[in-house]
Amino acid sequence: MRNESTTLSTPNFNLIVFGEALIDDFPEESVIGGAPFNVARSLAQLGAQPLMLTRIGDDPHGSLIQAEFARTGLSTLGMQVDQQHPSGRVAVHMEHGADASQHRFEILPMQAYDFIDAKQVLHLVQQRFPEDAPDLIYFGSMIQRSAASREALFALLEADCCEGATKFLDLNLRDGQASVETIQASLNYADIVKLNEDELRFVAKHALDEPYGAEISLGNESLRAACLALMQQYMMQAVIVTLGEQGYFYFDADHQIVTSLGRTMPSMPEGWVLRDTVGAGDAFSASFIRGWQQNQDLQTVLERANQFARAVCGVRGAVAPDLNFYTPWRV
């Protein structure tokens, strides 16, 4: 497999996305995924120029991932190719219960994305950002399950050329993939953290020096208090809590609250049908980051991110197969 990036003109990157690009292997088909890769692909289609830092294997799955980079307009400059380890893969098993069939996701160990090379990362970002830091660095927790990729991430976050970049943590907890220590380290780096209500409860219980004892409910005061406890320990700029069908709750260091709670959601376009919720959170992150980068009004940024996430629920998978889907959302 040949990395084509050196033969093509490279864009002026303004964002970095660090993390896994992988294949979800369903019994009936293989689907390209990985939360960071979902975010990077959406960002590219929304008009941003993200540099995706990942590692794939020299194998057929790696070729599929590389083709998806090209399809969605992503540069492969930050793609490392591993000759020893396979491209990331999640084995999806169909389990038949009493009521319905369900999918069980088996996140396989020792995948190429577990071995992102720190020296290659630093060499690249020092070349690409010699004067001005990127606007933002996006990262999650799953990529930190291995020492090598965790070391590469921390080296990136601490690099002199990235000083001043906003660090955006999309927690995305997966069973058994991140220790409490990893979560705490991630929160220490983060300027903005995005998590769902269950992850907020987990972090409040396990990742604070003084465990948060109050019940966290879907109300402004309850969410505000939990977010405040998180922000006071980790000195971050903002917390975004996604609330599924109820939208979002945003709280920042100025104690500003912006939320969809208590408001009627705008109706979806005629003909919209819920397909699945895969990648809805990733879509929210991508749209928020793009709007934030454009210095749009915060209320507008959050509303647009929420609507974009809902729109993505109307297509199969995390990224639309028809890229014309993104045209009305591009800014």
UniProtKB/TrEMBL annotation:
Matching InterPro entries, A to Z?
Carboh/pur_kinase_PfkB_CS, PfkB_Carbo_kinase, PfkB_dom, Ribo/fructo_kinase, Ribokinase-like
> Which Pfam families has this protein been placed in?
PfkB
Tagged with keyword NAD: no
Is Nucleotide-binding included in the keywords of this UniProt record? yes
Name this protein carries in UniProt:
Fructokinase
Q: Which GO terms describe its biological process?
A: fructose metabolic process
Q: Which family does it belong to?
A: Belongs to the carbohydrate kinase PfkB family.
